[in-house]
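Subject: design request, 146 residues
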């Protein structure tokens, strides 16, 4: 049983890294998107979509492995840091599904403002990274909040 729990912890940590790490690749891509021509812009947008898809699927593995850890681990589900993590998780899931999707859909519209879209994409990325870092802090530190 100990090896099973350890394997789930490993999967959970790797999925946490994959759910936040690729987002840092967005910053230089967004910066380069400001001065490129349309064909190159489409290539960069495709890379952004792949990054978002990796983050999304890693998030799914993160949630499943987190539930498995909760079911097999020593902490009850009503522990304050677990409840806070779930709340931040729901916020980040909603934010990821709506924030990035809306911004990327606007980029294909002919009358879209490229500078505004890139600024929003950059802001969305930093907010999501912040939410993920809060979750990471909650999972590592396990603070007693109430």
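Subject: RE: design request

Done. Sequence follows.
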């Amino acid at each position: 049983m100990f090896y099973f729990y350890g394997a789930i912890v490993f999967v959970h940590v790797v999925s946490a890294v994959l759910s936040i790490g690729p987002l840092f690749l967005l910053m230089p891509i967004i910066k380069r998107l400001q001065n490129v021509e349309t064909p190159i812009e489409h290539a960069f947008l495709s890379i952004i979509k792949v990054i978002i898809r990796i983050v999304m699927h890693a998030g799914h593995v993160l949630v499943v492995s987190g539930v498995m850890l909760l079911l097999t681990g020593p902490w009850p589900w009503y522990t304050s840091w677990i409840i806070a993590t779930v709340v931040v998780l729901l916020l980040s899931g909603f934010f990821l599904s709506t924030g990035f999707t809306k911004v990327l859909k606007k980029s294909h519209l002919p009358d879209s403002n490229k500078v505004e879209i890139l600024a929003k994409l950059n802001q969305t990325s930093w907010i999501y990274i912040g939410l993920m870092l809060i979750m990471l802090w909650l999972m590592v530190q396990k603070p007693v909040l109430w």
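The CA atoms of residues 85 and 135 lie 6 Å apart.
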